[in-house]
Amino acid sequence: MAHPHRRNDKRPFRSRGETDPGAWLWGWHAVLAALDNPDRPAPARLLATPDRARLLEERVHGRIKAEVADSAAIDRALGRSAVHQGVALKTEPLPPVALDDLARPAEGLIVVVDQVTDPQNIGAIFRSAAAFGARGVVLQDRHAPPLAGAAAKAAAGAIEQIPHAREVNLARALERLEAAGWRTIGLDAEGEANLDQVLDGGPTVLVLGSEDEGLRRLVREHCDVLARIPMSGGFESLNVSAAAAVALYAGQQARTR
To answer: Are 163 and 126 in contact (CB under 8 A)?
Structure first.
């Protein structure tokens, strides 16, 4: 069994000139899932505290050597806002899949995310998509955070499990999904029907709007129906990741009725 590599100098760990924040993953579950994913590009660096390095030895079987560092050194490599749990991985992003490949055959649930920019919300949406068996997640290419860092930490490994597509124009993407046999439901607090009333168990696209503005006009107009999540507790709406979890659960239940 390979032993983790130990640096013999006292210089702090740096990102070696690499400034792309999307290239780092951190958090125990996110890093383990990436290391176990055969579709993930080869890792470039693996930083771990001594205790985590010993645990990683049993998992990676010599595929990559961990650079042993204390927690403060990992903080310096990632930034102090990263809750890294003693482990961080430098790797290339997962490549997206083609939308047409995600759409065929038309069966199950797909989540389309319209300009949700909070990485933790994105990660939580992926986690719910994995939990409730969604086919995949569609992101807007230019207005979505990298699927790394805080997003991967919040997803707890789900980014490695759920394929994603990136589309420049979500309205046209919804047109293509409709042509492939999918029904699109936009989640909107002002929707004309309750979500459980419009779910029919068929191939369904759940469309989620941004944290502040909700669904954009063109995206709304390309949904077959707008639906609301009924709430009796006095709130008008849910956080987008909480709404995704509720909608995905309801969609899963509709498929099993």
So the answer is: no
Q: Contact, 170 vs 205, CB < 8 A? A: no
Tell me the residue type at 29. Answer: H
5-90 has CATH 1.10.10 classification? no
**DSSP annotation of 41:** P
- In sequence order, what are the residues at sequence separation of 6 or more whose Cβ sits closer than 8 angstroms to the Cβ of residue 169? none
User: pLDDT digits over 75-89, tens only?
Assistant: 998 987 889 999 999
Give SS3 for 91. coil
pLDDT in tens, 200-213: 999 999 999 998 88
The whole model's pTM is what? 0.87
Q: Is the dihedral of CA 127, 132, 135, 141 positive or negative?
A: negative
| The token pair that represents 168 in the structure block | 């420049």
Q: Cα(162)–Cα(144) distance, rounded to whole angstroms?
A: 16
Cα separation, 2 vs 196, in Å, equals: 53
**pLDDT value for 18:** 39
Sheet with 45-48: list strands edge to edge: 5-6, 67-68, 45-48, 87-90, 24-26
Peptide bond into 203 cis (omega under 30): no
Q: Give the model's pLDDT for residue 82.
A: 87
User: Does 127 have pLDDT greater than 90?
Assistant: yes
Q: Where are the domains of the chain?
A: 5-90, 99-256
Q: Which pLDDT does position 79 carry in this prediction?
A: 82
CATH for 99-256?
A: 3.40.1280.10
More confident residue, 192 or 135: 135
DSSP β-bridge partners for residue 25? 89
Contact predicate 49/73, CB 8 Å = no
| C-alpha dihedral, 169 to 172 to 178 to 183, nearest 10° | 50
